[in-house]
């Protein structure tokens, strides 16, 4: 079993870097997701005991004080950082201009989900996983 400092890449492309003990994440470590997000945590027997998720654009998720796109402030993170677009220019997603979403699909953050086939593909339309 894996033990000590190292890295491990999961079949989804997510990479773990940090301490391992008896084949499990243990101590300080970081998950790096294919979409650019990272989750730094302290692990115990493969389970995070405390940690912080940072999105690819630098936005840090805070469990208790989450003010991003909530009921009080509906701006996207790019609008918070760069300001609102001029009147008449709508920003429909955090990306501007938004991605082209295939007909009948949904943007799930790491790819497109097709409810007809129950398949999730990445933004390059390569298979990610079945739902």
From TrEMBL:
One of its GO terms (cellular component) is motile cilium. It comes from Upupa epops (Eurasian hoopoe). Its main location: other. The keyword Repeat applies. It is found in: Cell projection, Cilium, Flagellum. Pfam families: MORN. Signal peptide: none annotated. Keywords: Cell projection, Cilium, Flagellum, Repeat. This is MORN repeat-containing protein 5. The keyword NAD does not apply. Transmembrane segments: none annotated. Gene3D superfamilies: Histone H3 K4-specific methyltransferase SET7/9 N-terminal domain. InterPro entries: MORN (IPR003409), Morn5 (IPR042814).
